[in-house]
Design brief:
The chain is of the alpha+beta class and 453 residues long. The chain has two domains: 262 residues, MetI-like fold; 150 residues, Jelly Rolls (Sandwich). Helix content is 53%, strand content 14%. The protein contains 17 helices and nine strands. The strands form two sheets. The chain has a five-stranded antiparallel beta sheet with strand order 2-3-8-5-6. The protein has a four-stranded antiparallel beta sheet with strand order 1-9-4-7, with no helix packed on it. A hairpin with a 5-residue loop joins strand 5 and strand 6. The longest helix is centred in the middle third of the chain and has 37 residues.
Length: 453
């Protein structure tokens, strides 16, 4: 073991290995911190949530860094919440029961494209008499547009694009039929066609309540075309949740599968060589039969007919990979190790069979096995992603492969949402490159033939 540790210190001599270790350390750090800041139950709640969780997020929005590389500045999401003190509210009692509250949401719009959606969410509390809301829109050039009137309920929303009266008013103002509300409200009337009028906009909400204890809370959302560090999908979900939680899942799947497969194969091969006879023959026959059986179709069959749990798939991968062709190469090496002098010396002083196997035979192969373990990790990560792309990924957990599968099903490439596939694919590539760089360096250190090159 001391020789192994000494050889591991030689990694510092290889710049590629240092880069690989930095990448692996970065991925492991994310894998450790993600469950701390986003607990498992919270991640599941977020990823399986609908409009109740993601209502304030835009649909199919690019990451904000897309604006860094483009001359056209796409809008970001703008949110105002009266419950948090936004809107500079003013209150006036018109009568004993009637009260007027005025909220003014003011924002500076300096983007080159129109927002895709404008929505005001309301939460009203009342007994019998429903409150009344009048909405007024003020443009930078001083125009006032009556956005609409609304009677909010306990939980309701006003979508500008679905109000027919607002659309008719915008058609008269612009002279264009079927003008979308989002374009009509932000359009520059002095320019031909649709051009964004940049400047300060205001949305004024005049709220009338008709009961002493009645109250209306509002949330105004101007949805953006870019959002967050990772963007959003067709269900408004923030992709950073799946990208972050996909890291511990990928790391655990790859490391457990690589370590479990290699360690089990080593122990079985060593036991077969040491005890020989029927045990060795049975191990070799199982290995030969197992290598005829294709793994992927079996996983597809289990996922289709029984369960798509990622941990069940992991167990099957380990079981079928234990009896791989690597057992035969380990067996060939153990046959040579068994004849070495120090094994005879261990027999002479009365060492038990288990002690000889685990203390003398298996450690002899560790220098050759360690590079293989490191190089195996990405292959199992890619296997999990392949199952997800085939529709056999875990139905609950958000993973890198699940992101790619959702993107493919929603036609992300055809619709121009390239980020949806690029981000998980880039993380998978980063994982593969990091482990490959370290694996090649370890192979060069531990392999006597490569040391001479």
């Amino acid at each position: 073991m001391n020789a192994v540790l000494i050889n591991l210190r030689k990694l510092r001599q290889y710049p590629s290995a240092i880069v690989g270790m930095i990448i692996i350390a970065f991925l492991i750090l994310i894998a450790v911190l993600t469950p701390i800041f986003i607990p498992y139950s919270e991640a599941i709640r977020l990823w399986r949530g609908g409009e109740d969780v993601w209502a304030e997020y835009p649909r199919n929005a690019w990451p904000v860094w897309q604006n860094w590389f483009s001359d056209v500045q796409r809008p970001e999401t703008i949110i105002f919440k009266s419950a948090e003190g936004d809107g500079n509210p003013t209150f006036e009692n018109l009568s004993e029961d009637t009260r007027e509250a005025v909220y003014t949401y003011e924002f500076d719009y300096q983007y080159d494209e129109f927002p895709p959606e404008l929505i005001v969410f309301f939460n009203a509390t009342y007994n019998d008499k429903q409150p009344h809301v009048e909405m007024l829109w003020y443009t930078p050039d001083g125009r006032e547009i009556r956005a609409g009137e609304f009677a909010p309920s306990a939980s309701s929303s006003f979508r500008f694009s679905q109000d027919s009266r607002l659309q008719r008013r915008l058609e008269r103002a612009t002279g264009i039929e079927d003008v979308p509300a989002e374009k009509g409200l932000f359009d520059d009337p002095e320019q031909e066609g649709f051009q964004v009028l940049k400047g300060t906009y205001q949305l004024k909400l005049v709220v009338l309540t008709f009961e002493p204890d009645s109250e209306v809370q509002s949330t105004f959302v101007s949805y953006g075309l870019v959002h967050g560090i990772a963007g959003t999908d067709h269900r408004r979900r923030d992709l950073s949740v799946a990208l972050l939680w996909g890291t511990p899942i990928a790391m655990s799947f790859g490391l457990i599968a690589a370590l479990g497969t290699t360690v089990a194969s080593l122990c079985i091969a060593a036991a077969g060589v040491w005890y020989g006879g029927i045990l060795d023959a049975v191990i070799q026959r199982i290995t030969e039969v197992n290598n005829i059986i294709p793994l992927l179709p079996i996983l597809i069959m289990v996922g289709t007919l029984y369960s798509r749990s990622i941990w069940l798939m992991l167990g099957l991968v380990i079981v079928f990979s234990i009896f791989g062709l690597s057992i035969k190469s380990y067996r060939a090496t153990f046959l040579q190790v068994r004849e070495l002098a120090y094994i005879d010396a261990a027999r002479a002083y009365g060492a038990s069979s288990s002690r000889i196997i685990f203390r003398y035979m298996i450690p002899r192969l560790l220098p050759l096995v360690i590079p293989g373990i490191v190089s195996l990790v990405p292959s199992f990560v890619f296997l999990e992603a392949s199952l997800a792309i085939l529709g056999l990924g875990d139905p609950i957990l958000p993973t890198w492969g699940k992101l790619i599968s959702d993107a493919r099903n929603q036609g992300a490439l055809f619709n121009g949402f390239y980020y949806w596939i690029i981000e998980p694919a880039a993380l998978m590539m980063l994982c593969g490159v990091g482990f490959a760089l370290v694996g090649f360096a370890l192979d060069r250190i531990f392999n006597p033939r490569l040391q001479e090159l």
